[in-house]
Design a protein that fits this description.
The complex is a heterodimer of chains A (268) and B (282). By secondary structure, chain A is mostly helical. Chain A is built from nine helices and no strands. Chain B folds into two domains: 1-21 and 46-73 and 180-282, 3-Layer(aba) Sandwich (Rossmann fold), CATH 3.40.50; 114-177. In chain B, strands 6-7-8-3-11-12 form a six-stranded mixed β-sheet, with helices on both faces. In chain B, helix 4 runs parallel beside helix 6 (161-173), helix 5 (132-145) packs across helix 6 (161-173) and helix 6 runs parallel beside helix 7. Classes of the chains: A mainly alpha (268), B alpha/beta (282). At the A-B interface, helix 5 of A face helix 3 and helix 4 of B.
């Protein structure tokens, strides 16, 4: 393709139109997110669809969440040991890994892994339904796609990410324990005792509040990009990629604000 | 099978009474990203009539069907479906209305993760008021109508294009809706399969006497529909002599440059002097 052809194929839009599109997208996303919650208070609730999604999202993501948090816990213990050994304080590795995993790394890693696996899955599934007119068919048959497809995915992701995070936290601590006892020669009982005793209510609350927010982001972003798919199979691919990128960036960015908010509320 | 009938005299009254129009378009316009697709479209579909919509690709035929169901909102004008202004209705209220209208999409739009049984039964399952036994009976009845009862446990991916269209017809008629919308039901099919689909549409029209909007770019399909009727005794189509009265009237509507350039019956179409239409039907 000649340079001229390439340049002429690029769609040029004015800054005003660009801003309008972004605001429109934000508005559409807000409506979808709001509807997904409002639908919880309207019948039908599609319980069977929720359970099916919980199986797909929760059990399907279990191995990768457990593995990623386990190895992160192990790496955290290794890195901490290097620094702490300079001060002769390797015994507090359990505390450091515990706080790090439960408050921050467990929820964020579980959120990112579930986003990578499920935001893309939701975007591609719903996007394919858009381009094959299945969503239009559903509306034409008198069924609300937001109620039937979006709300069950949001509920399933929020619930399952909550439990995945709990299991992930345990695996992260286990990873740290393996490193502490096998590579650093620490007493396993001492590690677990330190890790357990250092946790206070605010740590646990913060660690369990975040996956609720992250789960909501993963599902609503995935569904939003899927339902706004345009342009056939190429559009499905684009939606899938954009959904993963947006969900991951949002999780990392929102984590900062949620952490600050909870610190202010809990005084920790 | 229950076959609701509408006496011929009632049909005659319905054709002249605006309150008996199942679909009314009044000065409807819509554009997609600055491209005007429909510009001031007005027409009526009387109860018990079949109207075939023609036009070149991109002339807005499928858009008319989506507008009639409220799947799209027009930029201007009013659309009344079964007496309700769909342009002013909320999405929640539209779901109720849509349950009284059946639609067959261009590419069937069957739910690919559901079996044929669940696809056909979708509307009944969603309503949640019908027993499993009744759902099974009606699914088999609808599939028997399209001669595909043996596919009940298959998935859409296991069916041919023509079979998918027939399942889509079964899905559309399972609740015996007052109005049916067909979006290019024979598009992309071979002539033999197309004939099968057209025969099914004629059978559906003459057995249930539903009002229909039929989008097609195959003129011969509409002419077959206008010149044939279903004989319930033999189970086959029979030719209707030119000028003879067909029990379910058939009219034609042609779109060009976003406007209606013809709206009449087969006789008027055959005697039109409009150059574009003559070229179109030749």
């Amino acid at each position: 393709m000649a340079a001229g052809d390439f340049l002429s194929s690029i769609e040029l839009i004015s800054p005003t139109d660009f801003a309008k599109r972004k605001i429109q997208s934000l508005q559409d996303y807000s409506i979808l997110a709001g509807q997904s919650i409002a639908n919880l208070f309207r019948t039908p609730l599609y319980g069977a669809d929720m359970v099916q999604q919980m199986d797909l999202i929760g059990f399907g993501s279990l191995p990768i969440v457990l593995a990623s948090v386990f190895f992160t816990g192990a790496a955290l213990a290794l890195n901490s040991a290097t620094t702490l050994s300079r001060f002769g304080a390797t015994t507090v590795i359990g505390q450091l890994v515990s706080i790090g995993i439960v408050r921050e790394l467990g929820p964020v890693l579980a959120g990112l892994v579930v986003a990578g696996r499920n935001s893309s899955g939701m975007a591609s599934e719903l996007g394919s339904m858009i381009v094959t007119e299945q969503i239009d068919a559903m509306r034409a048959l008198g069924t609300d796609p937001l109620k039937k497809l979006v709300t069950p995915r949001v509920v399933a992701t929020v619930v399952m990410l909550f439990f995945l995070t709990i299991l992930g936290d345990f695996m992260g601590l286990l990873g740290g324990s393996v490193v502490a006892s096998i590579l650093l020669g620490m007493d396993s009982h001492e590690y677990w005792s330190n890790a357990w005793q250092t946790l206070v209510f605010s740590d646990v609350f913060m660690g369990l509040a975040k996956p609720v927010v992250f789960g909501f982001i993963v599902a609503t972003v995935g569904c939003y990009y899927g339902l706004s798919t345009k342009g056939g199979t190429q559009g499905v691919g684009r939606s899938t990629t954009e959904a993963v990128v947006a969900a991951m960036i949002l999780i990392i960015a929102v984590d900062v604000f949620v952490t600050r908010f909870l610190m202010a509320v809990l005084g920790a | 099978m229950v076959t609701p009938t509408l006496p011929a005299a009632t049909l005659e009254v319905a054709r002249h009474d605006p309150s008996h129009d199942v679909i009314i378009f009044e000065d409807v316009a819509i554009a997609f990203e600055d491209q005007v697709v429909l510009d001031g479209i007005s027409f009526r579909l009387p109860r018990g009539e079949t109207k075939a919509l023609f036009g070149v690709a991109g002339s807005g035929k499928s858009t008319i069907l989506k507008l009639a169901l409220g799947l799209l909102k027009p930029d201007r004008g009013h659309i009344y479906t079964l007496g309700q202004d769909v342009t002013q209705m909320k999405e929640d209220d539209l779901f109720e209305l849509r349950r009284q209208v059946g639609i067959v999409f261009q590419e069937s739009a069957l739910f690919d993760s559901l079996t044929v049984r669940d696809n056909v039964a979708f509307r009944l399952i969603e309503e949640g008021k019908v027993s499993h036994e009744e759902i099974e009976r009606r699914v088999r009845e609808a599939l028997r109508f399209v001669e595909l009862e043996h596919t009940v446990d298959m998935f859409p991916s296991e069916l041919s294009g023509g079979m998918r269209r027939r399942v889509a017809i079964a899905r559309a008629i399972i609740t015996q809706p007052e109005t049916l919308l067909y979006d290019s039901p024979t598009g992309g099919l071979d002539p033999v399969t197309s004939t099968t689909i057209v025969e099914l549409i004629i059978k559906q029209r003459d057995v249930y006497k539903t009002s229909s909007l039929l989008v097609t770019h195959r003129l011969q399909d509409a002419f077959v529909m206008a010149s044939h009727s279903f004989d319930p005794k033999t189970g086959h189509l029979r030719h209707v002599e030119p000028g003879a009265r067909i029990e379910v009237p058939m009219t034609f509507l042609i779109l060009h440059n976003g406007k209606v350039i013809f709206n009449g019956d087969v006789q008027e179409l055959a005697h039109t002097k409009d150059e574009y239409i003559r070229e179109f039907i030749s």
